[in-house]
User: Fold this.
Amino acid sequence: MGGLHRNLTATDGAVPIAAGGPTPLDLSAPLVQYGAVGVLAMATMFWAWKLYQQALENAKRERERADRLETEIHKLNADIQEKYIPVLTRVTDALQNFLWRTGHKDDP
Assistant:
C-alpha cells in the first residue's frame, strides 16, 4: 500500500493516518490546553453566576428589610402624631399662657 498507511495492530484502535500528517498525540496538546482553558472559563462562568445569584438574594433580602423598617417608621410616626403632638400642643399652650400672665407677651 505504499507509505500512505501504517500497519495497525489489534491494540492500536486508531484510524490509519496519512504518512507525514499529524498524529493523535500531536493534536491532543492543543486540545488539552483548550480543554484547560475551557474548564477555567466554565469555572469562572459558574463563579460569576453564583455571585450574581448571591447578589440577587442579597438585594431581595435588603428590599424586604427596607420594607419592614419603612413600615416600622410609619408606625412610629403614627404614634408620635397620636400621643406626642397633643401633649406638645398642651405644653405649648401652657407656656404661652404662662408667658402671657407674667407679662412676656412679645416673647415667642
In short: DSSP finds one helix and no strands in the chain. The first helix runs from residue 24 to 102. Residues 64 and 70 are 10 Å apart (CA to CA).
